[in-house]
């Protein structure tokens, strides 16, 4: 059965004795195997199966696990027409080469969406983020954006959230390793992948008390009344200008607002987003009711 050998390891002061809590290790290794299985399904379909076999070894200050990705194609498939096991590992990024794999792509984006994405004539993908341009194989970009693989990779990196475990690395013997540090952990948070347009959208008027205002545009306000709590972005430019000019308001003030609610179906289920598109009235917590100058 054809296959490819690689290793993954977790390092940190807490692993100095070469031991690791099985409750951390087992889910992480299962996630590595599941990510390989999912990648094979996306690249080769269901007629080609893979399995991951494991053999552990130890070195001071880390816990290193040797793995073999074994591949079995059906009689209807020939080796020349499937993505081989070693290429699956390279596209995932478990084996590092001169091109970006899914791990490298996810790290480069820091949990954000790329600014631009363009498919090149040779089939590779070029994307930009934070004024930097990156190029990756189309297969690697596909894997990096698959929500199921993202979930498996997040579980693979979960041990880094434990005290004493500082980094994850993977590669093939004698080759360069792909490394993920604790500082990269936020990049592997499962993104909110939404469909467009929203599944449901509504606009309504409601009165709410301010719990936590936000002065930075884009951050969410927290508001409530006796029957509901709401987090929403402030998208009323007129009200935002009043804030910037020193308009007095604070916790406990009442806002009568027009709110747009959008609901998406995503990999995680239903997700919603609220935005205040117009502030109709403002009543201070103490003192007589007063309207903000310039508001109807």
Description:
With 296 residues, this protein is α+β, with helices and mostly antiparallel strands. It has helices at residues 22-44, 85-92, 102-109, 138-144, 147-157, 237-244, and strands spanning 3-11, 48-59, 62-73, 116-119, 125-129, 132-136, 167-171, 178-181, 200-212, 220-224, 229-234, 254-266, 269-283. The protein folds into two domains: 3-188, no CATH class; 200-283, Nucleic acid-binding proteins (OB fold (Dihydrolipoamide Acetyltransferase, E2P)), CATH 2.40.50. The chain has six helices and 13 strands. It has a five-stranded antiparallel β-sheet with strand order 2-3-1-7-8. The longest helix is centred in the first third of the chain and has 23 residues, at 22-44. Residues 289-296 have low confidence and may be disordered.
The 3D shape can be described as elongated
Strand order of the largest sheet: 2-3-1-7-8
Which sequence of SSEs, written as H and E, runs from N to C?
A: EHEEHHEEEHHEEEEEHEE
Distance between the termini: 74 Å
Continuous helix count? 6
Rg, rounded, reads: 25 Å
Poorly predicted runs: 289-296
* Helix-strand makeup class: alpha+beta
Helix content: 10-25%
Question: What is the residue-averaged pLDDT?
Answer: 84
Q: Count structural domains.
A: 2
């Amino acid at each position: 059965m054809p296959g490819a050998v690689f290793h993954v390891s977790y390092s940190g002061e807490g692993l100095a004795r070469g031991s690791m809590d099985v409750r951390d290790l087992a889910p992480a290794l299962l996630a590595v195997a599941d990510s390989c299985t999912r990648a094979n399904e996306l690249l080769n379909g269901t007629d080609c199966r893979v399995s991951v076999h494991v053999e552990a070894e130890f070195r001071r200050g880390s816990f290193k696990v040797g793995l073999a990705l074994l591949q079995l194609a059906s009689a209807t498939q020939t080796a020349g027409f499937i993505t081989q096991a070693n290429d699956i590992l390279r596209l995932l990024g478990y084996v590092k080469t001169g091109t970006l794999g899914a791990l490298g792509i996810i790290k480069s984006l820091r949990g954000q969406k790329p600014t631009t994405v363009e498919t090149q004539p040779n089939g590779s993908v070029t994307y930009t983020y934070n004024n930097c341009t990156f190029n990756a194989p189309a297969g690697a970009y596909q894997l990096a954006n698959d929500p199921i693989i993202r979930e498996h990779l997040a579980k693979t990196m979960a041990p880094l959230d434990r005290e004493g475990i500082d980094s994850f690395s993977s590669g093939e013997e004698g080759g360069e390793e792909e490394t993920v540090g604790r500082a990269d952990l936020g990049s592997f948070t499962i993104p909110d992948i939404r469909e467009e347009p929203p599944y449901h959208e509504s606009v309504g008027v409601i009165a709410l008390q301010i719990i936590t205002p936000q002065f930075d545009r884009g951050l969410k306000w927290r508001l409530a009344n006796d029957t509901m709590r709401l987090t929403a972005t402030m998208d009323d430019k007129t009200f935002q200008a009043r804030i910037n000019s020193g308009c007095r308001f604070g916790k406990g003030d009442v806002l009568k607002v027009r709110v747009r609610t959008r609901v998406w179906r995503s990999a995680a289920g239903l997700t919603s987003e609220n935005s205040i598109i117009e502030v109709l009235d403002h009543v201070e917590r103490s003192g007589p009711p007063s309207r903000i100058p310039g508001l109807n």
